[in-house]
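Run log // design_07
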């Protein structure tokens, strides 16, 4: 070949190689384009690109087989990093010495002169470096994009099993591994538990925490890489034998919590190209940092949820309907059936019968138990403030609205809203409430934005709503909207022996609070409790037992310890008598209450009390003995 034609060929091949560099995003693409460029320039020449992998040489691209190529010439060319020729072949070194050797082989050798071959060597070397850099850069961009997406997804997941599975799948995909596992450390059992163990039936794998690469990484807190050129004893071969799986390469990094304490090990197995690189190790370490944070957060959230559930269960148990009378048994059954539904409930009963306890019990047995329970006393809100209290207001909506404020409906969204003393609400307030209950939308006072609400409404009252509807003091349409299910609470005087059951329950409760064994009730005290009319119902009984628990020092509560407080509403009227008594018992009960009232009004002076009753003192004393009343 003449010098002029060689010069032209040199310029042409240089141009083609530059074009190959521009078109190539990876080293593989550059080898392919470069081979095509060289082959196209030298027509009948044989061209091959060979590289060394481990102890063996492989053909990246060739017109012939490896056995037909001068491998020893290629090895010498790489060792000397110079163009060599022998046996009609020309060896052009591309990479060598510290890098994996790569050589371009051409035949016949006289197709290219020495200078042109040297220039080609430099261009091929530069092109390969640029292609590898481009490939690594592109891979890095993809890894970072994946990492950011995964980090965002992980923070949204509260299911630890799903979270760990997604992490393992992502790590295997991004690092071109066959499978991956996240081992969490079960310190108490001295085990690493795979979550998940990809490829393992059932996804459950447990290994000792001092074995294999994973055990080494857990102990040292340092990342490790391994392939078949390393120590075979470094890996836990027994696990692979049990699973029928051969580990050819792996990379493992520690999972550390915020205080750099070990949580476990993140491991990816069997790279498709044979070995994991330092870049793979670095990227897996980055994934592990995000994974550890997500695992720690998820475990913390799971712990909080368990604590919340325990507290909800504890509160639910403390709000049980104590008693065994027929009315309470029926009420418990109805509450259990109604609670899981979304039905509106109207609770009726005298003051102190436990309407709010029933409302909270409905909430805690519903699917809304982990959301807010908000109680509103409608009787305590002035009509001018009702709309603001229930629906909220914007800043500046009225004189005292110095900042925006969410209403009770917004605060209870997702949970339960108790409208206590609903019978005391003004007619104007009832109309506004009905609109919200129908539309499930509130608008703050002074605002225009519609706010969607998801609230279960429970209403309670001690008044006769039917009577109020007849008197036009309560809207009939609101009454029917609230009265889907009605729960009627019996007064204490109609619950018979439940008085004793509740009294003992409260004594035990308050005894536990103050750290003393609960006192027991004497026979006389029990009889006196059963005889009392309980105008204040359960609330009155609870307050009485609280006084007894704190003020009595003995182990037994006597009748004299029961300091009843007369109801101001009944002090001038005939006392209430329980309806479940015989006429004789009811008469005795009335007499005891009536005498006790006069004795108390006379400050314990029996002579003065007898005078008020129109009796002689001795007759009063004798009557009190007959009725079992202590002096």
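design_07 sequence
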């Amino acid at each position: 070949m003449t010098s002029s034609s060689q010069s032209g060929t040199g310029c042409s091949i240089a141009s083609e190689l530059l074009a190959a560099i521009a078109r190539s995003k990876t080293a593989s693409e550059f080898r392919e384009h470069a081979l095509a460029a060289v082959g196209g320039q030298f027509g009948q020449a044989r061209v091959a690109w060979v590289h060394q992998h481990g102890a063996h040489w492989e053909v990246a691209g060739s017109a012939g087989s490896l056995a037909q190529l001068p491998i020893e010439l290629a090895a010498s060319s790489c060792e000397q990093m110079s163009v060599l020729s022998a046996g009609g072949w020309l060896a052009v070194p591309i990479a060598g010495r510290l890098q994996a050797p790569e050589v371009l082989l051409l035949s016949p050798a006289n197709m290219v002169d020495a200078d042109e071959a040297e220039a080609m060597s430099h261009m091929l070397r530069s092109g390969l470096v640029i292609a590898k850099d481009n490939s690594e850069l592109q891979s890095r961009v993809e890894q970072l994009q994946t990492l950011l997406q995964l980090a965002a997804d992980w923070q949204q997941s509260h299911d630890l099993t799903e979270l760990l599975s997604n992490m393992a799948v992502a790590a295997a995909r991004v690092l071109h591994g066959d499978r991956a596992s996240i081992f969490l450390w079960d310190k108490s059992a001295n085990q690493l538990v795979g979550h998940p163990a990809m490829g393992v039936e059932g996804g459950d794998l447990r290994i000792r925490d001092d074995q294999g690469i994973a055990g080494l990484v857990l102990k040292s807190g340092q990342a490790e890489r391994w392939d078949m050129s390393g120590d075979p004893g470094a890996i836990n071969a027994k696990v692979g034998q049990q699973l029928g799986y051969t580990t050819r390469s792996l990379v493992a990094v520690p999972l550390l919590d915020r205080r750099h304490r070990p949580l476990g090990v993140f491991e990816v197995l069997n790279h498709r190209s044979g070995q994991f690189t330092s870049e793979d190790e670095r990227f897996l370490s980055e994934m592990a940092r995000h994974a550890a944070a997500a695992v720690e957060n998820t475990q913390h959230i799971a712990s909080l949820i368990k604590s919340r559930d325990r507290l909800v269960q504890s509160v639910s148990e403390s709000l049980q309907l104590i008693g065994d009378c027929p009315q309470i048994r029926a009420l418990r059954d109805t509450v259990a059936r109604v609670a899981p539904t979304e039905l509106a409930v109207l609770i009726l009963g005298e003051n102190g019968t436990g309407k709010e306890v029933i409302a909270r019990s409905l909430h805690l047995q519903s699917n809304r138990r982990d959301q807010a329970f908000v109680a509103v006393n409608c009787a305590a809100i002035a009509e001018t403030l009702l709309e603001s209290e229930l629906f909220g207001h914007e800043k500046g909506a009225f004189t005292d609205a110095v900042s925006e404020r969410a209403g009770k409906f917004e605060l209870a969204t997702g949970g339960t809203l108790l409208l206590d003393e609903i019978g005391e609400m003004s007619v104007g307030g009832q109309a506004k409430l009905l609109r919200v209950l129908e539309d499930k939308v509130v608008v703050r006072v002074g605002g225009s934005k519609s706010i969607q609400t998801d609230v279960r409404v429970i209403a309670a009252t001690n008044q006769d709503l039917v009577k109020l509807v007849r008197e036009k003091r309560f809207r009939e349409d609101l009454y029917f909207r609230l009265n889907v299910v009605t729960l009627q609470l019996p007064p204490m005087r109609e619950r018979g022996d439940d008085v004793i059951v509740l009294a003992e329950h409260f004594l035990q409760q308050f005894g536990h609070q103050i750290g003393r064994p609960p006192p027991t009730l004497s026979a006389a005290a029990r009889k006196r409790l059963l005889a009392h009319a309980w105008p204040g119902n359960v609330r009155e009984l609870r307050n009485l037992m609280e006084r007894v628990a704190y003020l009595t020092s003995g182990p037994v509560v006597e009748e004299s310890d029961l300091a009843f407080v007369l109801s101001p509403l009944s002090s001038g009227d005939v006392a209430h008598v329980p309806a479940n008594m015989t006429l004789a018992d009811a008469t005795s009960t009335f007499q005891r209450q009536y005498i006790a009232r006069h004795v108390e009004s006379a400050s314990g002076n029996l002579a003065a009390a007898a005078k008020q009753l129109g009796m002689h003192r001795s007759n009063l004393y004798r009557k009190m003995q007959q009725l079992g009343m202590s002096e």
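The first helix runs from residue 3 to 23.
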